[in-house]
Request: fold
Amino acid sequence: MPPTSHRTRFFRHEYTVGWLCAVSEVELPAAMQMLDVFHDDPYDPVPSSDDNAYTFGSINGHNVVIACLPPNSPGKVSAARLVAPLSQSFTNMKVHLFVGIGAGIPRTPSTTDAKKNIHLGDVVVGWPAETGSPIIVQYDFRYAESSDVGAGAQRLLGHDQTPDRRLISVLGKLLGAYSAGRTKFPKIEESLNEDFQHPGLEHDRLYKSEYAHPKGEIDCSNCDSGHLVDRPKRQTTDFVFHRGTILSGDSFVGGAELRDKLANVHNTALCIEMEASGVIDQTRCLVIRGICDYADTHVNRMWQKYAAGTAAVFAKQFLHTLQPQAIERFDTIPSTSRSKSRTRIKE
Reply:
């Protein structure tokens, strides 16, 4: 059998990284652009009982399986159905990455450092800076009226509130390299095709919470700039990521006032999305989200591809920071994993 570095076909047990995504139109192509090498289907076929569609490849010597939800199948229930077949078909999984887009929760009030404020295209990683803060919080409006979101928003998922210790070590090393300007973010971004490039700083607009998008307008070209939030402007399109809690639920948040109420309940929350709660209930994973809107009435699709791309770039940098020989020390993710059983690490 040829050396691993020259092979393009493997057995299923040789795959150790699961890359999950939810939006096939933007997140799947972004993920595929991160692969160093595409693989042929495994020597041992995926069981017929597994309905997932997989893409196989490698990143920095890690064998990666990409699994994505079918088109137009958002939500935590669909996401949960993605995980069980993946773990059952690929029994040597060490790490799951859930990579995609989400809505940003702006910091209030804005900080004087433009890089510390949430902007479109930034990345939020489910890794809160404050000790003891949850990775994912499920909100559910069936259990709370919009005028009193506290009860529903406080429904935590899982018993472990931090990523696994060795994942934290990898993230800490990545953060150190980022602070020292020694990551590969710029070079990795270059591998994204033209459709996934930055839309332009002038299109990153954050409006005051009380200002609603004019009815019938497809974009913000006719929105009143007098209602923009006064905050420091970004001068470059440099890669920026943040650590924080991610809010997850089946209900779409498309109004700034509701967004702000959720944020007031969870002051470490920086992102809102709709699938992670279903995945983290099935398996321990690192959730990575590129910010494509501000969860307000001014939502449009302009930033979705770029945000999907930046999330994918972070995931690839993570796999460059986590070396293939180190991942072998991780315990295998159980095929019946649930939130009550964390992915243990071998000492």
Summary: The chain has nine helices and eleven strands.
